[in-house]
Amino acid sequence: MRLTKDNVTIGIHTRFGPNWPGIRCLAKTRRGTKCQRAAYKHNGRCGLHGGLSTGARTSEGLQRISAANIKHGRQTKDKLAAQRHAAKVGRPVLGELKRLERQLEDAGLMPDGD
Ligand SMILES: [Zn+2]
Description:
By secondary structure, the protein is mainly alpha-helical. It folds into two domains: 1-50, no CATH class; 75-109. The chain has two helices and no strands. Bound molecules: zinc ion. Zinc ion binds next to loops.
């Protein structure tokens, strides 16, 4: 027998036909009929009628999302601030070291480095 659109029985038990035993969305559609799509367990509506997530509400939830999105933490706010602070403190120290080195070289107490 040749398989055509009407005589295929493969997977017929899992199809969303009129006799599908699962829970349907049943939201009111723009046509005025009830939505026939399969409902999600958590809200009883389908992906079209249940709406999207409004995001984390609690600070705990926000923190969990933040932790899930951090890959290595090298670019986090506090790390960048620490780097800026280290550079700000380190620059004058390096300058002072260079100045002392030059003084010692000029006084002949240290071999010429470069
Ligand atoms: Zn629906």
